[in-house]
Amino acid sequence: MVRTPLLLAGACFALVSLTASIDPKPLYKNSALPTHRRVQDLLQRMTPEEKVGQLATPLGWFMYEKKGNEVQVSEQFIKAVAEQHIGLLWATLRADPWTQKTLTTGLNPQQAAEATNALQKYVIEHTRLGIPLLLSEECPHGHMAIGTTVFPTALGQGSTWNPALIQQMASAIAKEARLQGAHVGYGPVLDLAREPRWSRVEETYGEDPVLNGQMGRAMVKGFQGTNLKSGANIISTLKHFAAYGVPEGGHNGGSVAPGVRELHQVYLPPFRDAVQAGALSIMTAYNSIDGIPCTANPVLLKTILRQQWGFKGFSVSDLNSIQGLVANHHIAANRVEAAALAINAGLDADLSGTGFDKSLLQALKEGKVSKAVLDTAVSHVLRLKFEMGLFENPYVQPEKTSGVRSAEHIHLARQVAQQAIVLLKNENQLLPLKKSLKRMAVIGPNADNVYNQLGDYTAPQADGAVVTVLKGLQNKLGSGTQIRYAKGCSIRDTSSAQIAEAVEAARQSEVAVVVIGGSSARDFKTEYQNTGAAHVKASEVSISDMESGEGYDRASLDLMGRQLQLLEAVLKTGKPVVVVLIKGRPLNLNYVSAHVPAVLDAWYPGQEGGNAIADVLFGDYNPAGRLPISVPKSVGQLPVYYNYKTPVKHDYVESDAKPLYPFGYGLSYSSFEYSSLTIAVAPASRDVTVKVSFRVKNTSNRDGDEVAQLYVTDQVASVVGPIKQLKKFERIHLKAGEEKTLTFELHAKDLMLLNQQMQWVAEKGKFTAQVGASSEDIRLKEEFQLTQDIAVKP
């Protein structure tokens, strides 16, 4: 009688033990364990096919079906999960002419959240291991999805010279994307824009490594925050690694030719800054560097990114760039070789879903790729899925998507647009205009065009969501001012200009605001390459306005169509004229600068651009944007960036070598005076602190912002360096008559160069500190000296 319970207990214990050995709770599902233990456990359970699937990032907009207001997974998604074991998706919520997703066929924010939930639910419940998806979205100036806030494009963001504001903007973008189920935001673009003919200049922060680096850090911190499990943050993907923004002839994705020293000193630092700020994803560029495509470059992806910088995230190809190793670069004979080259070089994930896939599996079978290499790449992706908490909480709450495009975010979009506006000219203080105006003409192809105002990588917009310049002025002035609107002409099309109507509107008005420039507005007639770039035809039967944006490289920088003819005709009326520029790159402004008394550059100012421009035109906001890129007088001057290497440029037969408007330039309705420059050098054992102090005073009767800029020249160095280099800057607000002392601190890292032995060092010798309001408007200057060489670890 005693033995029976013991025998039963023993039998139960044996049964429990047998069950546990057959089906234990997997370690990777234990959230209490360290991430590396969970990754290790999951990896050892996965088949090669499942591992390769985790690196596939197919195009996401094919993965859902919308039937009325209901959203469900598509047959294509079910097939991709079953056959490819996919672990990532890209642009699931994207809507634009390329994806053919409209306001009707695409997803509003609540439907987007329902769609991502459905995708996650299916993959978790219908796969062996239940690994959640990692969803990547385009987020450079707002989440590229229906119903989200559209901020100014990056060139405008760079014009703010205000990283704190851009970090705030990035936080808003991250929140909107995450509420809809996204985990990764593509951005920031950290390419230096030193070739304005290139089609993607608008996506960059300009030509300077320091400004780009500070903006990159701000975006990363805003996107990622301090807790990836917050429900309001996303992983930041840096683009495009590396030196993508200086293609020969301006050809997008074309060959670049930086030297090794220039690559390290100029093009890589913005990426290094962003990685040091914690960036957890990075995208390779289409181009090659010194004959090695970035997508298969072990020096970039292993030596620099991981060994030297300590990068802890995952790398991803640009769309189809693994296949491009065969089709474009011709360094691989077939796709199997291409997949092996890329992953062996340190590339983790494939944006396309077909670059690795069967080709990588075949490379594994043939011994071209080892299990260890595959496991390393997969671990980089899995680690972030664990760190975002996706195994515990893969879903979002659709009811919370009311926080997308909130009133707070719209107000922020207006702030960024205000701070981005650059006042290029204001002859005889024509601006600000008086609100007592009774008659105003608003003229031009960009005066009332929603999509011309928003830039590339923007979703379709609902009626009333975007405030154009015309609408902004109507909002500002109300019924007390009669506003006559005339389009006058298109950006490119010369067949339907109505210049006479515009001239008459100007004649009947006290002042004419002419809104011209460019456009990155895609339309549903445009043909697209498999990379998403536009397929440009030299001659088109139906001509869109688009002359900028991915794929739209230019041979000249002239205003296109009949815009110059329109402006000339309006000027001939003798009425005061203000030109507002809306565009994605520097254009030829020689005529505008010479003949128009007041000029504003707004770049692509986003959905609140019209209100922001009206605020500046009528003095409710005092402009203080500064150019993040030099404006050339001619394409014959290119390149014309300010921090070129010595010797000093000499003039041409036809013109001088200076830009029309230099880097850092911008006017204000206020005036500012600089004084009292002092420099204190405090050496340390392995560093130095150089304190540069000066005073800035608002000498006007109007409150305003000033952007104080510190440039440094190394007078004698072991290698040729730039004539000057921006080191520090600060945007400050000063009330009328107010004066402040600013102090910038420089350290050895700020003064370092790569010497002849390719070692980072701040070399002893004399330096010149130059303080002023632009790269050319230097107000104060003084020398300082380092007494010894200082080795630096960047």
Automatic annotation (TrEMBL):
InterPro entries xref list: Cellulose_Degrad_GH3 (IPR051915), Fn3-like (IPR026891), GH (IPR017853), Glyco_hydro_3_C (IPR002772), Glyco_hydro_3_C_sf (IPR036881), Glyco_hydro_3_N (IPR001764), Glyco_hydro_3_N_sf (IPR036962), Ig-like_fold (IPR013783)
> What Pfam families does this protein map onto?
Fn3-like (PF14310), Glyco_hydro_3 (PF00933), Glyco_hydro_3_C (PF01915)
Which N-terminal residues, if any, form the signal peptide?
Answer: 1-22
Gene3D superfamilies associated with the record:
Glycoside hydrolase family 3 C-terminal domain, Glycoside hydrolase, family 3, N-terminal domain, Immunoglobulins
The GO annotation for biological process reads: glucan catabolic process
Checking SUPFAM superfamilies in the record gives: (Trans)glycosidases, Beta-D-glucan exohydrolase, C-terminal domain
- Record domain Fibronectin type III-like: where: 706-775
Q: Which residues cross the membrane?
A: none
List keywords of the entry alphabetically.
Answer: Hydrolase, Signal
Alphabetically, the GO molecular function entries are: beta-glucosidase activity
Q: Which family does it belong to?
A: Belongs to the glycosyl hydrolase 3 family.
Designated name of the protein: Beta-glucosidase
